[in-house]
Amino acid sequence: MNRRLSRLALAGAAAAAVTLFPLTTTPAPVAEAAPVVAPAADPADGTAEGAIEWFKGKQGNTSYEGLCEKAVENAWGTTGVWPSAIAHWEGAVSAGKAHKGDTNPPKGAFVYWNISQYGHVGIADGNGGFYSSGIDGAIGHQDSLSYFGNYLGWSDPQVPA
């Protein structure tokens, strides 16, 4: 009889354990994944977005007056590639990367004007405007490519080479 009581006690303990600690579990609720947000571009990171960010961060800066080519090259993360904006334009024409007279440049494209022997260059914002030095005496933004006269066109948005 003791054996039978022991077996009953053991069976009772096992049943209690299963009741307290069930063998099946209810899955935990699954959290929704956070939306993927593209990281902001770093200024001068070699991308069109980075070039725009570089100019946005320098708005009002007067240290690039007369140095438009240096400004656009710095915005793309390089310097010293072209001696002037007009040389950059002529290089783009020679390389087949110039879009003469086209007033719809994509974001980050170089936009050129023939306003002096050195020319002028800025970076297109992709919405018909541009960033450049020489905007009211400093780095700034204009909504129209006609801000300067003698617009030449644009060249491909890429690290100057």
Short description:
Residues 1-33 form the signal peptide. With 161 residues, the protein is α+β, with helices and mostly antiparallel strands.
If you had to describe this structure to a student in words, what would you say it looks like?
The structure is a single chain. This protein is 29% helix and 17% strand. About 11% of the residues have low confidence. The chain is globular. The protein has a six-stranded antiparallel beta sheet with strand order 1-6-2-3-4-5, with helices on one face. It is of the alpha+beta class. The protein contains four helices and six strands, in the order ααααββββββ. Helix 2 packs across helix 3. The longest helix is centred in the N-terminal third of the chain and has 19 residues.
